Hints:
Low-confidence stretches: 1-12
Strand content: 35-45%
Distance between the termini: 29 Å
Helix content: 10-25%
Mean pLDDT: 88
Number of strands: 12
Number of helices: 3
Largest sheet: 8 strands, antiparallel
Radius of gyration: 16 Å
Shape: globular
Amino acid sequence: xxxxxxxxxxxxxxxxxxxxxxxxxxxxxxxxxxxxxxxxxxxxxxxxxxxxxxxxxxxxxxxxxxxxxxxxxxxxxxxxxxxxxxxxxxxxxxxxxxxxxxxxxxxxxxxxxxxxxxxxxxxxxxxxxxxxxxxxxxxxxxxxxxxxxxxxxxxxxxxxxxxxxxxxxxxxxxxxxxxxxxxxxxxxxxxxxxxxxxxxxx
Length: 202
């Protein structure tokens, strides 16, 4: 895979303010055009990533987490695929100056079908309750809805994410909003999301 410079990567024309210092960048088809074959990447990650199932305590029962996951601290270990290392470099070129620190980890989720999902949450583990952070998510494979809602109630957003799309949540978004990938009854293929985060954020 080789990279081609794309000037539009460096503008924020698709930034949307959510209020109270929170914002999102939504860049449709961001990945398409600067990887030789981004369609192949999905298939390569399916086999290259060490996917694992998780179980979590939910009230009085231990349940399977409805998706497969893989987490990589890129400051201590090599990226599990060369494209992930290149994505991290590209995203740091765009956002690290604004954020004041680089993305240091890649978390991957495999949603095998419409029954796989992730519940409402914010990526705040490891940060203080007043500290802003940033999460960048690259989508591969089938289209799925990425939902966001204000903490404490309010109008929610439904953001369909297709293959090659980039969604970045910044400012206070992790503290003042929650996000989720809801289940869907519609027939859908598998989706991989790659979440780039800064240190200590999960």
